[in-house]
Write a structure and sequence with these properties.
alpha/beta, 4-stranded mixed β-sheet, 10 strands
Length: about 260
């Protein structure tokens, strides 16, 4: 069905693999459209409780497709950037947690795609960067916004304005990635984290993600009010009753997503 990505679901986990290894998985319009389609499917599929996003071969995503971008007009470039942002924003806001399994290059649009995920697990061979100013452009898929929120304004400026590429250790040090593992352990580690998330109450997971995302842009009191509303709402779910009953009975809970 898809030309540029692989999509699969197994044991409540959705798998999306960008599959253009000959182009180091560079993002063109087709990739973006297929990503948007796949994440829409995931958003509507109640059987999926966590998602792993990765790239085929030795690259996560090496950037946006320069060959496709090089001849764009101003209007076409604005439309391309807006569509890329639409995809990234959608990935960020879906209720299912999305894990970026960064197996190699995550540059430009690839770094932006990884940052749109909920957290990033990196291979020790991964490389990160926003090299756009070296091409005469700015980041276009949210890089100037998400990077500063993850690593701070000064570090984001240094990385974007120098166009430097950093290794996994530096990315971890500055807070761009949450964990580094050896390449052969990357998918297993991500699957273990996804399975752990999938075993928890899906409504509570979704509400927690939403509170964190929305609260990040609010003052403490407004964010706390949002949390209080979510906390109270959980008590209207069957999963809350099952979770607390299972705890008191000293057994594993069986959540039904309702």
């Amino acid at each position: 069905m898809y030309q540029t990505i692989k999509y699969d679901v197994k044991d409540s986990i959705g798998y999306i693999t960008i599959n253009r290894p000959e182009a180091l998985n560079a993002l063109n319009k087709t990739v973006l459209e297929e990503l948007f389609n796949a994440f829409n499917k995931i958003d509507l599929d109640d059987s999926i409780r966590a998602v792993i996003l990765t790239g085929e071969g030795r690259s996560f995503v090496a950037g946006a497709d320069i060959a496709q971008m090089s001849t764009l007009t101003v209007a076409e470039a604005r439309a391309f950037g807006a569509y890329g942002q639409k995809v990234m924003n959608f990935i960020e806001k879906i209720e299912k947690p999305v894990i970026a399994a960064v197996n190699g290059f995550a540059l430009g649009g690839g770094c932006e795609l990884a940052m749109a995920c909920d957290f990033r697990i990196a291979s020790s061979k991964a490389k990160f960067g926003q090299p756009e100013v070296g091409l005469g452009i700015t980041p276009g898929f949210g890089g100037t916004q998400r990077l500063s929120k993850l690593v701070g304004k000064g570090m984001a400026k240094m990385l974007i304005l120098t166009a430097d590429t950093i290794n996994a250790e530096e990315a971890f040090r500055i807070g761009l990635v949450e964990k580094i593992v050896e390449p052969e352990s990357l998918m297993q580690t991500c699957e273990e984290i996804a399975a752990k998330i999938a075993s928890k109450a899906p409504i509570a997971v979704a509400m927690s993600k939403t509170c964190i995302n929305k609260g990040y842009h609010l003052d403490l009191f407004s964010g706390s009010a949002l949390e209080a509303e979510a906390f109270g709402g959980c008590f209207g779910t069957e999963d809350q009753k099952e979770g607390m009953k299972a705890f008191l009975e000293k057994r594993s809970a069986e959540f039904k997503n309702r």
